[in-house]
């Protein structure tokens, strides 16, 4: 059983999640964002234009009502600004505030420092290989979720018809 790669992966992922939870940055000034806020800010900050909440739900594979609640909480904490960019009042878009950007960057830098310390004895090639395999694994999980739970996936917004 221990020679079975799926067995090894299953156990390694369980241990990985536990260990990473225990080693996250604990400085109060750094660990200010929960996981969902960190991921939402990451997505929002990668875009030049305000990000549609519905697109965030699709990108992060959560239902729209959950994403709307998370965004509302982040707006109330001053991490996101709501933006109205079209004539459609239903189109809720957001941008990161300077506070949101600063908290994201502080947490990202602290996380990178922790991972750098963990991987300091790894060669750059091994680090690159791990990055590629983890990205592939993440992509496979997203594909699996789409296949196994298509009804749970948020729906894409309908395309606007030309006027």
Automatic annotation (TrEMBL):
GO biological process: response to stress
Record-level Gene Ontology MF annotations: DNA-binding transcription factor activity
InterPro entries (UniProt xref): HTH_MarR-typ, MarR/SlyA-like, WH-like_DNA-bd_sf, WH_DNA-bd_sf
Top-level taxonomic group: Bacteria
Short name of one Pfam family: MarR
Region listing for Disordered, in residue ranges: 143-163
All copies of domain HTH marR-type, residue ranges: 3-139
The protein's name: HTH marR-type domain-containing protein
Organism: Sulfobacillus benefaciens
